[in-house]
């Protein structure tokens, strides 16, 4: 589903654009507010991540369709935690993992992103933060990741926001590595250095 006007209830498709599942199309049911990261943005993002994705432990916060985490697994990530509070949406991610025979590498968590981070004791090499736009969720997510040191040293954090949204204050040691805009989306990649 794009940011356009797909009919609600009609199946949409997302396409894995690289790695072992390249070209695979996965169907999902559109849900209000669900806007999977476009192929164009994903292509750029995973070019940025290419040197670091192999064997990485990933976190797809606000997973939605799960396309960022699935793309990471396709390109050689060791594992990915998918966090999504909507049961039906998370069920679709679970179905995709089953279809791709990747349930041993993809782990689904039905819980809100902030609650998940508050409870989690894990650390990740790559974190994807692509929340619903305009709801002020980026700042609290990044603050928790920083306060709990949940990103490994030299780990990467991807943040996708609306182009008109101001980026909140980020934890110490987060350095902007890449930044681009595509239409109404701004996307950035940060390197996390130990404080």
TrEMBL record:
Q: Which domain of life is it from?
A: Bacteria
Record flagged with keyword rRNA processing: yes
Protein's recorded name:
Ribosomal RNA small subunit methyltransferase D
GO MF entries: 16S rRNA (guanine(966)-N(2))-methyltransferase activity; nucleic acid binding
**What species was this sequence derived from?**
Seongchinamella unica
Name one matching Pfam family.
Cons_hypoth95
Say what the protein does.
Answer: Specifically methylates the guanine in position 966 of 16S rRNA in the assembled 30S particle.
Q: Which reaction does it catalyse?
A: guanosine(966) in 16S rRNA + S-adenosyl-L-methionine = N(2)-methylguanosine(966) in 16S rRNA + S-adenosyl-L-homocysteine + H(+)
The family database entries (Gene3D superfamilies) matched by this protein are listed as:
Vaccinia Virus protein VP39
């Amino acid at each position: 589903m794009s940011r356009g006007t797909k009919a609600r209830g009609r199946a949409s498709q997302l396409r894995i654009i690289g790695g072992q599942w390249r070209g695979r199309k996965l169907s999902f049911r559109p849900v209000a507010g669900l806007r999977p990261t476009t192929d164009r943005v994903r292509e750029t993002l995973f070019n940025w991540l290419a040197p670091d994705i192999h064997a990485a432990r990933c976190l797809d916060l606000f997973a939605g369709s799960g396309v960022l985490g699935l793309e990471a697994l396709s390109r050689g990530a060791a594992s990915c935690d998918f966090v999504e509070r909507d049961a039906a949406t998370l069920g679709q991610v679970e179905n995709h993992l089953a279809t791709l025979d990747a349930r041993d590498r993809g782990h689904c968590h039905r819980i809100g992103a902030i609650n998940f981070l508050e409870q989690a004791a894990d650390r990740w090499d790559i974190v994807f933060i692509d929340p619903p736009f305009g709801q002020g969720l980026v700042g609290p997510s990044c603050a928790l990741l920083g306060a709990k040191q949940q990103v490994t040293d030299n780990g990467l954090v991807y943040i996708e926001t609306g182009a008109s949204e101001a980026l909140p204050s980020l934890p110490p040691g987060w350095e902007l590595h890449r930044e681009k805009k595509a239409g109404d989306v701004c996307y950035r990649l940060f390197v996390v250095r130990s404080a």
